[in-house]
Amino acid sequence: MNGLVIVDKPAGWTSHDVVGKLRRLAGTRRVGHAGTLDPMATGVLVIGVDKATRLLGHLALTEKSYDAVIRLGRSTNTDDAEGEITATASATEVTEEALRAAITDLTGTIEQIPPQVSAIKIDGRRAYKRVRDGEEVALKARPVTVYDFAIGDLRYDGDLLDVSATVTCSSGTYIRALARDLGAALGVGGHLSYLRRTRVGPYDLPQARTIEQLTEELVVLPLAEAVSAAFPRLDVSEDDARKIAHGGRLGATGLGPGPIGVFGPDGTLLALMEEHGPVAKPLAVFVP
């Protein structure tokens, strides 16, 4: 059962709900996920089972892609459709030219303020819990990278404008915040009304299975295949394999920066390693 399960998360489920379901299906409590999806969102959620949980923190840092619908003309306190409406304005005067200009300003490396209702911790407490307790939450902007932000169909619903979009971005980017900031830049407010994650690193929707499918057959991507798909691969000699099995280091590989999957001469996954100057140090060792 060591490996990854690529789930197509349904709407209404929290990421923790999916983890709980997979714990029952896999028969182990050693299950986790690589990057939270909000309950409203659907799509790719990468689940690690048993030893594969040691990969999750590294997989969570890979780039992600989304299909989204941004509703302009209405702001909410959560920056998505599940929150309370805080302001409205007519979006009928928003032109495609203005829309594209505002999107250009939100593409590349930007400073983004996360939504107040988020899982970010402030002095040890989640921001969303502080908001629910009536506190004013001021989160600091942080750098994120939006590699691609493209718009598709534009549909008017009265004074509101629904903008279909696809986004590819770095870890830590909130699509809700992009919707909020796009609406603010256009002077009409905005929120996220639909979100479907289509890719996490190398894992995409064609690989994902629904909860119903997984209940019928639990498909687990073996640990070695998961590492080969997500990270550069280094095959080593038997002598180096023995060294790595005991937590030893290697010389610089030239495959960095970032984690490297290291395999023995028989194809066995040995470890995940990372270069630090002239040496490569183990991040996680998978052989006894």
TrEMBL record:
Matching InterPro entries: PsdUridine_synth_cat_dom_sf (IPR020103), PsdUridine_synth_N (IPR002501), PUA-like_sf (IPR015947), PUA_sf (IPR036974), tRNA_psdUridine_synth_fam2_C (IPR015225), tRNA_psdUridine_synth_TruB (IPR014780), TruB_C (IPR032819)
Gene3D superfamilies referenced in this protein's UniProt entry, alphabetically: Pseudouridine synthase (3.30.2350.10), PUA domain (2.30.130.10)
GO molecular function, one term: tRNA pseudouridine(55) synthase activity
Family annotation (SUPFAM superfamilies): Pseudouridine synthase, PUA domain-like
Stored Pfam families: TruB_C, TruB_C_2, TruB_N
Keyword terms: Isomerase, tRNA processing
Keyword Transcription found: no
Record: active site: 38 (nucleophile)
Domain Pseudouridine synthase II N-terminal: from-to ranges: 23-175
GO terms (BP aspect): mRNA pseudouridine synthesis; tRNA pseudouridine synthesis
Ranges of residues in domain tRNA pseudouridine synthase II TruB subfamily 2 C-terminal: 231-286
Record-listed E.C. numbers: 5.4.99.25
Keyword Isomerase: yes
Catalytic activity annotation: uridine(55) in tRNA = pseudouridine(55) in tRNA
Domain tRNA pseudouridylate synthase B C-terminal: 176-218
Family named by the database record: Belongs to the pseudouridine synthase TruB family. Type 1 subfamily.
Family annotation (HAMAP family): TruB_bact
Protein role: Responsible for synthesis of pseudouridine from uracil-55 in the psi GC loop of transfer RNAs.
NCBIfam families per UniProt: TruB
Full protein name: tRNA pseudouridine synthase B
Organism in which the protein naturally occurs: Actinoallomurus bryophytorum
Native organism taxonomy: Bacteria, Bacillati, Actinomycetota, Actinomycetes, Streptosporangiales
Gene name as annotated: truB
